[in-house]
Write a structure and sequence with these properties.
The protein is of the alpha+beta class. About 15% of the residues lie in helices and about 25% in strands. Its EC number is 5.2.1.8.
């Protein structure tokens, strides 16, 4: 014989308990004791950027003021490895679509996040460099529209925005692959 389950009504917490809760302001924006990961096969710069040359380029290296063309991909390291941009493709739910437009900027102009600026500065055309971007070298104030590159599709923008604006325990470290295509 099956047991009969009746709905049970539990008392809700009193308003005083809910109103009495105060968030710990001192913990906002902190890493909560989590040590920053470092990888032995990556180069660590004085700024804290870590990079690995996936493919070393054979072309010219850009100088400050020159216009560079890159293709890039981005993934949220600390939040389930969610991709927010894909190389060579527009970012849809399944990375499908036509070829995307490449990203252009003038090296040293301050128009891109510090990690991309620093990472591209030492590359040669044809190279691919993987960047581990700590929060302080990424998008300032959690705003992906302040500096480039930004995701090219709505789903990519949503994925990155969720991580950047989250005030909880989400690690905001990003992984960005950059391919240097051209220098002018």
């Amino acid at each position: 014989m099956a047991a009969l389950l009746l709905p049970i009504s539990l008392p809700l917490p009193s308003a005083a308990l809910v109103e009495g809760y105060t968030p710990m302001e001192a913990l906002k924006g902190k890493n909560y004791g989590k040590p920053r990961m470092s990888y032995s096969d990556y180069v660590t710069t004085p700024s804290g950027l870590q990079y690995l040359d996936v493919r070393v380029g054979t072309g010219p290296t850009p100088k400050p003021g020159q216009r560079v063309t890159i293709d890039w991909a981005g993934v949220t390291i600390g939040y389930y490895g969610r991709p927010f941009e894909a190389r060579n493709k527009t970012k849809g739910g399944a990375f499908t679509g036509d070829d995307k437009e490449f990203y252009h900027f003038n090296l040293g102009s301050g128009s891109v996040i510090p990690a991309v600026e620093e990472g591209v500065a030492g590359m040669a055309v044809g190279g691919i460099r993987r960047l581990i971007v700590p929060e302080e070298l990424g998008y300032p104030n959690g705003d992906m529209t302040a500096l480039g590159p930004s995701p090219t599709t709505f789903s990519g923008q949503r994925a990155l925005d969720f991580v950047l604006r989250n005030q909880g325990f989400i690690d905001k470290t990003l992984l960005i692959d950059v391919e240097l295509l051209d220098v002018r």
